[in-house]
């Protein structure tokens, strides 16, 4: 009687390689999930800021949760699509929280910088900050039936920092003291139900004094009129004064203050530029010297 020899099934080498890669892939997914979950818990434990918990940590928690499910669905052929969706979804989650944080900050700033103490309803209205944007905050507020009294820009740098370190710069904000800025530009407009006048800035004071000093000898009323300084602006000071039924006799640019300390000497501080013409457009003068009744 012949002895039957049991033959082993033939194994395809490609299948072996594929199974090995699949096992390694699963092991890698589990490791990544554990590491991400550990880091997320570490961030939650050490976080002391609501912004941090709502943005950075939540992104890690979502990523960890999805990563834990990946080994279960690793046999499906949708992994590529899932990774792509994950890649697109996580920045959106962070961006949504960032927008909410900036909106709350803007509402607080607009409330605190209201010029007058009389009661009023205030609104921090978002504005598109693009170089080609020609819509000023005056127009943004007017579109919703409100009055602009200031404009601000809240920068995103620092809001989503993973850890806040003592002595380091965090979120930056900028106050314009005007509602006519275009381009980028404010990203929030401070609007109110009532009309509020902007406080006189140091630029207004310098421009008024300069225009008065440059008036020709004949007596007349002098006005330093603000002009929007933009590379795309085609309106010169002749037009600005003419619209007010005044006559332009000079144009100047008052630059930002460098905030020198009281004891500092021998350093450049305030700066102005005189154009000796009223026909300069673009940027350009930011004040027009007008005269007339």
Number of strands: 8
Helicity range = 25-40%
Task: Give the N-terminus to C-terminus distance in angstroms.
Answer: 130 Å
Q: What's the shape? A: elongated
Mean pLDDT equals 75
What is Rg? Answer: 31 Å
Please count the helical segments.
7
Largest beta sheet: what is the strand line-up? Answer: 1-4-2-3
Helix-strand makeup class: alpha+beta
State which percent range the strand residues make up.
Answer: 5-15%
Segments where pLDDT lies below 50 for 5+ residues? 48-53
How can the largest sheet be summarized? Answer: 4 strands, antiparallel
Q: From N to C, what is the helix and strand string?
A: HHHHEHEEEHEHEEE
């Amino acid at each position: 009687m012949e002895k039957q020899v049991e033959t082993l099934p033939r194994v395809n080498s490609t299948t072996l390689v594929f199974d090995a890669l699949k096992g390694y892939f699963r092991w890698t997914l589990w490791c990544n999930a554990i590491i991400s979950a550990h880091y997320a818990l570490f961030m939650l434990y050490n976080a002391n800021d609501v912004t941090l918990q709502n943005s950075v940590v939540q992104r890690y928690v979502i990523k960890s949760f999805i990563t834990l499910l990946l080994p279960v669905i690793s046999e499906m052929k949708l992994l590529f699509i899932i990774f792509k969706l994950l890649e697109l979804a996580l920045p959106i989650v962070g961006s949504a929280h960032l927008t909410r944080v900036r909106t709350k900050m803007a509402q607080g700033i607009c409330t605190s910088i209201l010029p007058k103490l009389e009661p009023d309803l205030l609104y921090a209205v978002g504005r598109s900050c693009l170089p080609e944007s020609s819509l000023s905050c005056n127009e943004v507020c007017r579109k919703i039936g409100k009055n602009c009294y200031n404009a601000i820009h809240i920068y995103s740098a620092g809001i989503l920092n993973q850890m806040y370190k003592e002595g380091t710069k965090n979120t930056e904000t900028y106050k314009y003291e005007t509602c006519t800025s275009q381009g980028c530009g404010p990203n929030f407009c401070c609007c109110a139900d009532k009309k509020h006048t902007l406080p006189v800035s140091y630029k207004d004071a310098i421009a008024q004094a300069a225009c008065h000093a440059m008036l020709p000898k004949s007596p007349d009323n002098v006005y330093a009129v603000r002009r929007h300084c933009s590379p795309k602006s085609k309106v010169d000071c002749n037009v600005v004064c003419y619209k007010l039924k005044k006559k332009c006799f000079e144009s100047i640019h008052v630059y930002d203050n460098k905030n020198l300390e009281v004891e500092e000497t021998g350093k450049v501080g305030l700066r102005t530029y005189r154009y000796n013409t009223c026909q300069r457009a673009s940027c350009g003068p930011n004040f027009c010297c007008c005269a007339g009744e």
